[in-house]
Each structure stands twice: as structure tokens, then as C-alpha cells.
Amino acid sequence: xxxxxxxxxxxxxxxxxxxxxxxxxxxxxxxxxxxxxxxxxxxxxxxxxxxxxxxxxxxxxxxxxxxxxxxxxxxxxxxxxxxxxxxxxxxxxxxxxxxxxxxxxxxxxxxxxxxxxxxxxxx
Length: 123
Description:
Layout: H1 8-11, H2 15-24, E1 29-30, H3 31-37, H4 43-55, E2 59-64, E3 67-72, H5 79-104
Helix pairs in contact: 2-4, 3-4
């Protein structure tokens, strides 16, 4: 039975793997540096996610002594990478627009908590 994580699209289905790939998009990093960037995840979990990304061909691994260094590979995604970048760009633009509109809004701010009970109770 083939490993589902070996498929690049399926490998991107896990949020942690997407985050690791995002961190690697800036350049090569060691497994330890990636672990430090994700303090809420154990080193073992980071290592397993990196193995899945490598099996899917999304990262290259370079051994140097006892350390492993990872670098993102864009080629396996081909045209899908451009579409994913466009989707992210659109999502970031919408978030920016929402934040700017909220910041420039005049008048009373909308309530953020649950509605208050305005009925009077007589004791």
C-alpha cells in the first residue's frame, strides 16, 4: 500500500507540513532550527513531518555530520504551486483589506461579546 504522504498534494494537507514548508521557503534550515521555530511541537513530530515532506519530494535533505538540513523544492508541485501562491495572495489581500476597513471604521464599534440580557428581573 503506497504511503499517502508520498503524494505532494496529500502531504500539503497537514497544517504542520505546510508550516514547515513555509519556513523552508526562506532557505535551507536544520531540523533543530525548524523545531525551535515551532515550540509547541516535539522534535520527534517535526522529524516525522519532515520525513513525510521528503517522501513526497517537497524537500531535499542534506546530511552534515549528525545534523540534517532541509531545503524546499518547488518543482514537484509544478503548476499547482502557482495556483497555491495566487490563492494565498488573494487570502492575504482580503485579510489586509478587512483590517484596514476595520481600522478606518467610524462610529460605534460592533459588540464582540455575547448580547447582554436586558430584561429586568424583579426580586
